[in-house]
Amino acid sequence: MTDRSVSxxxxxxxxxxxxxxxxxxxxxxxxxxxxxxxxGIGGTWRDxxxxxxxxxxxxxxxxxxxxxxxxxxxxxxxxxxILDYIKHVAEKYDLMRHVRLGAExxxxxxxxxxxxxxxxxxxxxxxxxxxxxxxxxxLSRPSYPDxxxxxxxxxxxxxxxxxxxxxxxxGKRVAVIGTGASAIQFVPAIQPEVGHLSVFQRTPPYLxxxxxxxxxxxxxxVFEKVPATLLAERGAWYTVTESLSxxxxxxxxxxxxxxxxxKRHMRxxxxxxxxxxxxxxxxxxxxCKRILFSxxxxxxxxxxxxxxxxxxxxxxxxxxxxxxxxxxxxxDVIIWGTGxxxxxxxxxxxxxGAAGRDLHTEWKDGAHAYYxxxxxxxxxxxxxxxxxxxxxxxxxxxxxxxxxxFLGDYVDHLAATRxxxxxxxxxxxxxxxxxxxQLSGSVWSACSSWYRNANGRITTNWPLLARQYRAQAKFDPxxxxxxx
Length: 484
Ligand code: NAP
Known about the structure:
Distance between the termini: 25 Å
Organism: Nocardioides silvaticus
Bound molecules: NADP nicotinamide-adenine-dinucleotide phosphate
Largest sheet: 5 strands, parallel
Domain FAD/NAD(P)-binding: 7-225
GO molecular function, one term: monooxygenase activity
Protein name: 4-hydroxyacetophenone monooxygenase
Keywords: Monooxygenase, Oxidoreductase
């Protein structure tokens, strides 16, 4: 139990924020407020409601290890089910009484005298806490491309993460910009109803088969009665996804095998449309961008009402898209599948640490933090899914649990000593140098992607295996200095 109460504000109620709060509560820390800017919990799984939205990591693994869910209707869960799971967890672990909805943090300032964080909200309210935990995610702020004429389109247009369900796509000419993880899910979902679909591809993704399956009531019964079966499914998918990381990090030979599997799959699926395979087969090093599990995207591209446009976009016009070859592609609706501002960590919040140090100034060349959790000069600030904690293949929840354990150990220590800590500058710098050294020759440095910021620095990805992160990311007071 806690010696004395530590007050904690967690920003965000997605998988990361809830993991943090559950771990803290398990350890007896109950003075927790979860600040959520939206009107419901769930983070990215609340926001991304596009048709076909689903997880591309199997649910038995893309879920908390301490909260198995025998009733998954599919191996690859659809968004509404994942959101249900999040709500179930929040109820079961008594988190809702800690959640404050409609509470957007605009500024957080460390008070050197009081040794507390002052947290200002968008509605003008503020609160003071001992510990601030940011769990705002990496993929919460939509990114729109810098294309001439962007604002001139006269029809409806929206981003995949802010899907406008009031726009009826039936029979319409729809232009989709982007072919990443989101687009490859919503393209097959909308293709049957739209009149014509133009998919604008700048760089194709590598695809491997999605071995989805329905879990029926009989499976649910077995998962419930014999938990080892669900655990086995979890373990198997941990192994499969960790093998992807093994391939990207350690094994060119395994990468080649995965590439061969992808080629066979994509060629077979594109066979119905002459020339399609040649357009969708990537030329960059496999693993450099996120590899995607999909068995319905290429068949959708092969349909007669779909054009895959590989010519670069020159301009958005009031009536559609004009490509570099001068061709007009008329559209009634444009959908931006152009991803997120992943490298702008904690933006647009203003965060001022000890002696007024501004977090975004510290990070002007790219975000960095000790195991993605602690930044020198920012006492008692901890992050979930912070810099360099993304994985090129596996389940982020596995990483979040490691960060929650770190946070729990940290807060236990703080509760016992009552002395705020900041990670030592030399420790964080050495850590960051090693991470960047490992990343510099890695597969992720071989192309451009959302893993890299404008300077080319890889700020999102962890360079090694998930298992190694979990083994290494442990709180040790010796890595920190007491802030007086
Ligand atoms: P993304 O992977 O970043 O894809 C964005 C797409 O937009 C890319 O194809 C990109 O092309 C294209 N694009 C960007 N700017 C462009 C421009 N100016 N002109 C033409 N095309 C442009 O974004 P996302 O699909 O939203 O996925 C982001 C991440 O979210 C994923 O990697 C994944 O981690 C997560 N996600 C997860 C799931 C899940 O199932 N768990 C589902 C969806 C998303 P380039 O490649 O050439 O830049």
